[in-house]
């Protein structure tokens, strides 16, 4: 494989020295970019975009071509590819987000679920990873990803997005045996899926626990974190002669940083509700931190964006172990010029912290 021309993202995740704080954005390939909207129109729909490796590569590369400051590419895909490969029938309703043709509601439903083979059942994702990696040609590292078992389970039980997770939480409390079986199958599926991505060329992986923060403290430990820990323990951690860092991101998980830091990942993603300097004090040298600007700051003027970037950098302070990111994904209505101002500010303002 081609040698990396820019590896500061990987170095920061491993708490190695860097010249400036590396930066990327969750959902950096997405609807805020006109070139993405054009590609999606050409593909026909979102799933066609995801399932065609050439289109997935095209949209993965778009933000990198627009913003030379980006220090990583992230695979363009969707977190719900695994439930789809388990036979749930993923589709998208305009204005309503993801939906499933089948829902999981009983122990028998869960027992019937297969564990997908990443190469046979999700081969289009592996093909996308290898295609993107080839196209990157060592420009920046490629991030692979998956949803967490708990987050995937919520969609499978609810049949789509939910505001209160009533069906999923009812199963959790009424029938914990069924929920644990579902989460165990999902943990096995996510482990093999991420390992497949690593073998195909992903140089770091992130586990997105979007809905873990909606659980009680006790339920989070038992039904979310325990299964992410199981995944991390089963991942390939070295490939192509270098470490493959793992990032664990629980949105709303600020109360539990210490236990997340002990779960085996190399880095923790932070949402915008906690102070990154305080988070650094709490976790010490155990892990790197990724985050954590409020995505809605990007609606403000470039001067205000720059001020907020400076505040977060100052809060983290000197030294490595920080990957700058938003506290969640960039939103569709953001002006692309504002995203550019954000990325430039990170590199320009962070050099002083790496002397």
Automatic annotation (TrEMBL):
Q: Which InterPro entries match?
A: UROD/MetE-like_sf (IPR038071), Uroporphyrinogen_deCO2ase_HemE (IPR006361), Uroporphyrinogen_deCOase (IPR000257)
* Gene Ontology MF: a single term: uroporphyrinogen decarboxylase activity
| Record's keyword annotation contains Transit peptide | no
SUPFAM superfamilies, alphabetically?
A: UROD/MetE-like
Which reaction(s) does its UniProt entry say it catalyses?
A: uroporphyrinogen III + 4 H(+) = coproporphyrinogen III + 4 CO2
Which family does the UniProt entry place this protein in?
Belongs to the uroporphyrinogen decarboxylase family.
Output this protein's name: Uroporphyrinogen decarboxylase
Taxonomic source organism: Pseudomonas canadensis
Question: Gene name on record?
Answer: hemE
